[in-house]
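AAA+ ATPase domain-containing protein
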Amino acid sequence: MLIFKRKIEDKIAERMFKGRAILIFGPRQAGKTTLSKKILQTHNHEKAYFNCDLAVVRNNFELGRPDLLKEMVGENRIAVFDEAQTIQNIGAILKAFIDTYPEVQIIATGSSSFDLANKIKEPLTGRSFEFILYPLSLSEITESSGKITREDIDELMRTGSYPAVVAERSREIKEDILKNLATNYLYKDIFTFESIRNPLIFESLIKMLAFQTGSLVSVNELAISLGVSRAIINKYLKLLEQAYVIKVIRPFSRNYRNELKKAFKIYFIDIGVRNAIIGNMTYVPERHDKGAIFESFFIMERFKEEATKSFPATIMFWRSRQGDEIDVVEEIEGKIRAYECKWTMNSRSLPKSFTKKYPEAETNFVSPDSIRTHLGF
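Structure:
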């Protein structure tokens, strides 16, 4: 079985034993448990792992007393609390523990930022380092496998990059894993912690979003189609983003009159999950939506690469009111990078309405054949 080295591993190692908790957010099944156990294996210190999905762990934890928690941790110097969002008042509990026992390195993972962040971030302000672990990036897969071909990229655009999917060789089992993720597992925390009064509407919204990936999203149209209020749609969109199912992309604008400023697009964190949701696992080069699939794949690869940096670029899109569009616009330290996604490189042109407004922007054309160059490897 392939063992994947994650890009954030070294950054986490550099921040161990600094008197701060290490928080690892990300979707379920992205590899947080594997990574945290790997971190434990690389240290000679005494260590302990606690699965907070287990009731016995939660019950001991929620007493909230640092001395009782220390009794549970024992003489271990490193303690991992996996799926920590299941613990009530987790942030306050960890703050009290870190203040009392700063010599113990706490690592907490969570698959839903809406719950873990609310419970941890505020109490642990100034007492934590935070990381996001997405499904595997193309560079992580390449480093672990030694090489990657165009055929491999086509398969990743079909089945996505969750570690269990990438490591599996059987097409049938890959698709079974994706079906389970797409129909149940990714939404576990949303249904557990949030009040979803109509799961059928929630699931219908997810499917509508999957068909609209890469297109402008209208909350009004979604609300009318599903027969619910705009407030409900906005709530569900927020929950899906906080549970790392989707990514909301905002428009880039310098306040020129004819630029879109309030519209947004939605991409799924994993393109394989998106394909499973719409029930289409066909070979990507043969599909009518292959352009949208590649655009979605590339944008999420850019997010994965930037997530490993201390000061990541802001990733957006650009669109004029006349319909001219740039697929990806990144801004960092005042500099602009623009990417236009192409299935083939037969035509290369950018809207003049963009290049005239932003002549200083670095412009790039990217295709499945050239994607590795634009990801820096």
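The first strand starts at residue 21 and ends at 25.
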